[in-house]
Design goal:
The chain starts with 5 loop residues before the first helix and ends in a 16-residue tail after the last strand. Strand 14 and strand 15 form a beta hairpin. The protein has four helices and 15 strands. About 30% of the residues lie in helices and about 20% in strands. It folds into two domains: about 80 residues, no CATH class; about 80 residues, UDP N-Acetylglucosamine Acyltransferase, domain 1 (3 Solenoid). The strands form three sheets. Strands 3-6-9-12-14-15 form a six-stranded mixed β-sheet. Strands 1-4-7-10-13 form a five-stranded parallel β-sheet, with no helix packed on it. It has a four-stranded parallel β-sheet with strand order 2-5-8-11, with no helix packed on it. It is globular and about 45 Å long. With about 190 residues, it is α/β, with parallel strands linked by helices. InterPro entries: Hexapep (IPR001451), Hexapep_transf_CS (IPR018357), LbH_SAT (IPR045304), Trimer_LpxA-like_sf (IPR011004).
């Protein structure tokens, strides 16, 4: 995955939440928006992982919010720009999971291991509440994973999947589900 600067990633996440970027929006979101706050400290913990002193502060803050929001998300996960979490509660994924750009994850989502393999979520994906994506699975670009879906097989680009086990119900994609999509040239 391409290496982005910390500021670039935070701007992209802030844009996904608000549709614009400003210092006042940053202050408002870091104080009052739980999803942005969680993602900010997760990114800070990863970015400053090798910086003396800062690594302890950022990890402590991330651990605090991880416990406060009952999440088991690993901060070492590779996550692209424009990551959005509206409700953090009960989310879980390992550091081996790969998450692309402009991904939206809602509460109670599990991106889990199966047979020592982990999911890969590509770009512009919307994952609804309660979804479980397990094992060596690739979620294609512009896909939607419906609420409480259990995904154990690859999902093609633009597919909308629902149910347990997950089945494709359309190829309309995520264009109507994603808001404030971050473009690389922003």
């Amino acid at each position: 995955m391409k290496k982005y600067s910390f500021i670039y990633l935070i701007k992209s996440d802030l844009y996904r939440q608000n549709g614009k970027v400003s210092f006042l929006l940053f202050l408002k979101d870091i104080l009052f928006r739980k999803g942005f706050k969680f993602v900010f400290w997760m990114r800070a913990a990863k970015y400053f992982d090798t910086t003396p002193v800062l690594k302890y502060i950022t990890k402590l803050m991330f651990i605090y919010y991880k416990r406060a929001y009952t999440s088991d998300a690993n901060y070492r996960t590779d996550i692209g720009p424009g990551f959005s979490m509206y409700h953090v509660f009960a989310t879980a994924w390992d550091k081996e999971v790969k998450i692309g750009s402009n991904v939206t994850i809602l509460h109670s989502v599990t991106l889990g291991r199966k047979n020592n393999k982990f999911p890969v979520v590509l770009n512009n994906v919307y994952i609804g509440p309660g979804a479980c994506i397990l094992g060596d699975v690739v979620i294609g670009n512009n896909a939607i994973i419906g609420a409480n879906a259990t995904v154990t097989k690859d999902v093609p680009d633009n597919a909308v999947v629902v149910g347990n086990p997950a089945r494709i119900v359309s190829y309309n994609g995520s264009s109507s589900a994603l808001v404030n999509v971050w473009k690389e040239d922003n």
